Amino acid sequence: MEEKDQNQKRQEVRARLRYIKSLPILPPIASMLNKMVEDEEMTAVRLGAVIEKDQVLTSKLLKMVNSSFFGFPQRISTVSNAIVLLGFSVIKTLIVTSSIFDMMQSSDVGLWEHSLGCATVAGILARRRAIKNPEEVSTAGLIHDLGKVVIRAEFTKEYNEIQGMVETRRLSMMEAELECIGVAHPEIGGWLIKQWNLPDRLILPVLYHHNPEGSPEFRELSAIVHFSDILIRAIGFGSGGDLWVPPLDHQAWERIKMGKGEVKDLLNELDERIIELQDFTIQMQQTKVK
Amino acid sequence: MQSLPISLAAPGMVLAKAVKTEDGKVLCGPGVELTAELINRLSKSGIHVAIVKGHPIHMPDEKSLAELIKELEARFERVKDDPVLRALMRVIAEHMIEQSKM
Ligand SMILES: [Fe+2]
Ligand SMILES: [Fe+2]
After folding, report:
1. pLDDT value at residue A2
2. DSSP class of B14
C-alpha cells in the first residue's frame, strides 16, 4: 500500500514537471544553440559572436568563467575564448542555468554557496586526478542540487512540508523528499537537465551524486561530485537544506580515496578559494541591484 | 588571510590576493602594501572587498574555535559511525585548530 503510494506520487511529480511553470524561462538564445552546434561549419568564433550579441548574458558568462570556482589560470576575455578553453558543454550549461542561478542568488544564498563550493572542490579534485576538462566536473558540481531548486520553485507546498520534516523529525532533505513526494532531488534535477541535451559526463554525476556506484558510466566523475558535496558540507560552507553531512559511499571512496596529507592540502587550498567565493557572491548580488 | 570590505581596509595592510575587477582584470597584485591613495582608487573602480594578509580586524560575528568545533561535530552527528568520515572530521578539526593559531 505504502509502496504504491510512493510510486503514484513519483508519477504525479514527473507529470507536473513536464509543464514546469515557475522556473525562470531559458534565455532565448538557448534554443538556438542546439541547432547551431549541429551545424558542422560552426566554429567557436562564430558561436561566440552569436552569444556576444546578448550583452547581459555575455557579461554574466564572463564573470562565471573568470570566477574562482573554475580556478582557470588565465583570464578569459571573450565568449569564443571561453568555448575553446572550457568546452561548449560547460558554456551551454552556464547559459541554460543562468536565470536559475540568478534566482538562487537572491532566494537561497545558502544553496548557491553550497553549489559554488561543491563545484570548487570537484574542480580541484579533477585537476589533481588529471581528468581531462576539469571545468566540466566543476560544472557538474555546480548543478548537482538543481533538483532542490525545482522542488522549491515548483512544489512550494511540498517544499515547506519537507523543511518542516527536516526540522521536527530531523530527517535529511533526501529522506524527507522521498517520503513527501516519492522522488528525491537528484532524479528531479536529472529530469530537468536531460531536456538540455547535455553530455552524460555532466548528467550522470548529477543523477548519481548520492549513490555514485549506481552510475552506468563515468563512476569516477560521479564519485568526485559525491565526495565534493560531502566535503563542502563537512566544512560548513553554504547550506544543502539540512545540517548534516550525507553518508559516504565506500566503493566510490575506494576510487578516489586520499591520505591525511592530501586532505590537509585540499583544506588549505579550499580556505583561500572560499574567501574568493564569498567575494564573488557579494559581487554577483551587487551587480544585480544596480 | 582575511577578506575585508574596502571601507575597512587601511594603509599598511598587505594584499594577500590580487584585486580584480568583476570580469577578472587584475588591478593590483598580491604583496602590495595598501596606501590611502590606493584604497581610494580601488573603491572608485567599484571594488568592494580586499583580501589582506594576516587577520588585522576582529569582526563582531566571528565565531570562537570552540563554537566552530561544536558545529563541526553537529554536522557529523548522523555519520559518526563511519570510520572514514570520522577520520575526515578529525582532519578538519585539526585544520581549524591550526588556522586559529595563525
Ligand atoms: Fe544532493
Ligand atoms: Fe549537495
Report:
1. 57
2. B
Is B78–A244 a contact, with Cβ atoms under 8 angstroms apart? Answer: yes
Length of chain B: 102
Centre a 10 Å sphere on the Cβ of residue B12 and count the other Cβ atoms it contains: 11
CATH number for the domain formed by residue range(s) B2-52: 3.90.105.10
When divided into structural domains, chain A yields a total of 1
Across residues A255-259, what is the average pLDDT?
Answer: 96
What spacing in Å lies between the alpha carbon of A229 and ligand 2's midpoint? 5
Q: Which of A279, A282, A287, A289 to mutate to test the interface with B (most CBs of B within 10 A)?
A: A279
H or E element at residue B26: strand B26-28
Residue A219 belongs to a domain with what CATH number?
1.10.3210.10
Domain layout of chain B by residue ranges: 2-52, 65-101
- The pTM of the full predicted model, rounded to 2 decimals, is 0.89
Name the residue with higher pLDDT: A286 or A16: A16
Which DSSP string do the residues of A59-86 spell out, in sequence order?
HHHHHHHTSTTT--SS---SHHHHHHHH
Q: Which structural domain range is residue A124 located in? A: 3-289
